[in-house]
């Protein structure tokens, strides 16, 4: 099985994917394409409403052949931040309670293959999150043998936490890919037990700023500390692609490489 996973798509990263993803898919023939979509939109001025997704931006991803999207701390941002979770292809962190809209896992059936996708988060991204490993264990127990492969998007900053969950799940999952920091890490490798791993896939959006956004907002917020009315805007550099290709043989992964 081949899976393309695209890291946090920020703003114009979506335009770029419309240009590049068809070519990458033709070249690599993935069975599944999964993307982290928590930063598709620029939704507002305050934290927790700054990013998020909309039905219109998600429709552009479905049109590209994306099978499901994952999220994180921005899963519920923006005017459509709750409504988008009516779509079963939209995942939000599994370990974020039951009252938050949406679901944290799904099994995608396609071409006779069954890919389980799980979205987890750490408390450094969402301070009220539950234990990610306990949530994953419970999900994998519930699925039993109903999947051929399992991909986990672990949304958070702690590489230690991501690796711990990946090691703990060896033999049960096929890949654990990190998102949230928007910074690509140089550690794509296969862990003992056949788990494809990368601490952070990196963002797909404009470089030359901070997390795909213009640095003005971050600098002024750090200087003022208190309420800051500097508007959020996207960075203005060249678009960076944060994406990996994972190949599995059965449940175990054989390779994980970065796409450029
Ligand atoms: Fe993000
Ligand atoms: Fe995030």
**What pattern of helices and strands is seen along the backbone?**
EHEHEEEHEHEEEEHEEE
Which ligands appear in the coordinates? Answer: fe (ii) ion
Number of strands: 13
Top CATH class: Alpha Beta
Q: What distance lies between the first and last C-alpha atoms, to the nearest angstrom? A: 20 Å
Largest sheet, strands/sense/barrel: 6 strands, mixed
CATH architecture: 4-Layer Sandwich
Unreliable sequence segments: none
Structural shape? globular
The Rg value, from CA coordinates, equals 17 Å
Mean pLDDT: 95
Structural class: alpha/beta
Sheet-strand content, in percent, reads 25-35%
CATH superfamily: Metallo-dependent phosphatases
Major beta sheet, strand line-up: 4-5-6-7-9-8
3D architecture notes:
The mean pLDDT is 95. This protein has 260 residues and is α/β, with parallel strands linked by helices. It has a single domain (2-258), classed as 4-Layer Sandwich (Purple Acid Phosphatase, chain A, domain 2), CATH 3.60.21.10. Strands 4-5-6-7-9-8 form a 6-stranded mixed sheet, with helices on one face. The protein has a 5-stranded mixed sheet with strand order 3-2-1-12-13, with no helix packed on it. The chain is 22% helix and 25% strand. The protein is built from 5 helices and 13 strands. It has helices spanning 13-28, 55-63, 132-143, 159-168, 215-224, and strands at 2-6, 32-36, 68-70, 105-110, 113-121, 149-155, 175-179, 189-191, 195-198, 205-206, 239-240, 243-249, 252-258. Bound molecules: fe (ii) ion (FE2) (2 copies).
